Amino acid sequence: MSGWASPAGALLGLMGGIGLLLIVAGVRGRRVTLAERLAPALRPRDATSGLLREQPVRSPFPVVERLLAPWLADVARWAERLGSPRAEVRRRLDRAGSAENVDQFRARQVVWTVGGLAAGLALALLIGIARGFAPVPLALLVAICGACGFAACDQLLSRQIAQREERMVAEFPTVAELLALAVTAGESPVSALERVAGAARGELSAEIRRMLADVRAGAPIGLALTDLADRTGLPSLMRFAEGVAVALERGTPLAEVLRLQAQDVREAGRRALMEAGGRKEVAMLVPVVFLILPVTVVYAVFPSLATLRVGL
Predict the structure, then answer these.
(1) 167-291 architecture in CATH?
(2) In whole angstroms, what is the distance from residue 254 CA to residue 190 CA?
(3) CA 200 to CA 178: how far, in whole Å?
(4) DSSP string of 215-229?
């Protein structure tokens, strides 16, 4: 018992000292600044109706949420220093069509990082029990698992952006031709956009409805189209926004511009499909060269070798 008591006591003392240091650092780091003291008195009163305000999402455990909110905010600010800037994250969330704000995404990154650290710690304990404890490699393994969790959350957002942009590119030719038909029938551009947004379903039609909401709120249609292109980040939609804006300003035929853009997007999709087919064709050569061809050679050469061995 005495052999185990000494390391256990040292470990408990180390954990207690680290906990006290974290508490002191947190208390000293959260001192109320002068701006925070004056903010309640100087903050303007929000006259927006309570029905129109964005209601905060509450967890099933509000007490735990209030206790952990300051720590999560600090960790989120630390993660922001290591990751992308706040404006870039906001732009990527808009491109993914996510309803999260930047703080919620940072909190999700923190949760993924903590999950990676927990998985790395469990793996390090299993390796230590099986092969003996080596502090430096095991600590490095835990850190790598935490970094993988942080990167996996960011990679998941990038994948969501890529999938959404693929769906928008696939929807764009149909939407452009519907707009061209509506404009040719004599409707104004805004009416044509409203008709298409009401009839179509998909990611691009949702963005058009958001753009129309900005137009109804008083924004010029050219500016709303520019905002649409900035939110999506797709070159085809950027050309679409520029073409529609120029056609509205100069009075050029809008239907022909929309048809040409739809044709260009279809040609780009056809080229991308041919490029993907070429890459798949090269990838298919790997099993043929390294698996099927050696087996064929063995079947062709083995009878001859057997015959020569019998002859000798």
Answers:
(1) Up-down Bundle (1.20)
(2) 12
(3) 9
(4) HHTT--HHHHHHHHH
The upper half-sphere exposure of residue 173, i.e. CA atoms within 13 Å in the direction of its Cβ, equals: 12
Domain boundaries, the chain: 167-291
Is the distance from CB of 146 to CB of 120 less than 8 angstroms? yes
The tokens of 131 are what?
């092969």
Kindly report, residue by residue over 143-196, the tens digit of the pLDDT: 899 889 888 888 898 898 888 888 888 888 888 888 888 888 888 777 888 888
pTM comes to 0.63
The whole-angstrom separation of Cα 129 and Cα 141 is 15
Ramachandran angles phi, psi of 29, nearest 5°: -80, -15
Q: In this structure, are residues 97 and 203 in contact, taking their beta carbons and an 8 Å threshold?
A: yes
- The string of DSSP codes covering 268-283 is HHHHHHHHHHHHHHHH
59, pLDDT greater than 50? no
